[in-house]
Amino acid sequence: MYKITQQEAVMINFIVCGLENTLLYENKNKIDDRTIELISELNANGVKFAVATGRNYDAVKPLFGNVKNDIVYICNDGGVVIYQDKVISKTPIDRLVCMEVVSEIEKNDKCLPFICIAFGRFFMDRPDNAFFRESKAGRGGRRNGC
Predict the structure, then answer these.
(1) pTM for this entry
(2) How far apart are CA 54 and CA 62, in angstroms?
(3) From CA 30, how far away is CA 141, in angstroms rounded?
(4) 81 φ, ψ to 5°?
(5) Residue whose C-alpha is closest to residue 49's, from 23, 79, 87
(6) Which residue in 19, 83, 9 sits closest to 47, CA to CA?
(7) What is the pLDDT of residues 40-86, one digit of tens each?
(8) Where are the alpha helices (DSSP H) in the chain?
(9) What CA–CA distance (Å, rounded) separates 127 from 141?
(10) In Å, how far are 22, 40, 97 from 80, measured between CA atoms?
């Protein structure tokens, strides 16, 4: 196992860690308390911690308990970066590309409606769907536009 030298330790100021199968493993929906403590120690020593995931920010932030406001969140597979509830970077899909994807999906009657979730918004062409009625995303979204 590689050991970090004192000089290297002084040079570390930012750590990025994956969420799935790294911080969350064995189908757990909770990050280990010791991991939360370590993140807190890193912050206290001036080391920023970031989590990278394909999940949405609103689904990830609550997992980090009392350090949730001290973490940089790289969410939606890098599509959005948030720190202290402020978006510092986002890479949205072009609206026309989104609409082309919806058009292709609609050609297949067996496909479910397309949903594009970002910053509390979604696209759904057929909001009569049971998923729409039961989904938390169904509240406050908008129809027919990503």
Answers:
(1) 0.70
(2) 15
(3) 28
(4) -125, 125
(5) 23
(6) 9
(7) 988 888 899 999 999 989 889 999 999 999 999 999 889 899 999 99
(8) 6-11, 33-44, 57-60, 95-106, 130-134
(9) 11
(10) 20, 23, 18
Using an 8 Å Cβ cutoff, are 68 and 58 in contact? no
Token pair 């049971």 is found at 130
The count of residues in the chain is: 146
pLDDT at 69: 96
Distance CA 75, CA 59 (A): 10
- Locate 71 and state its tokens: 């973490």
- Token pair belonging to 73: 């969140």
Q: Which two tokens stand for residue 110?
A: 């067996």
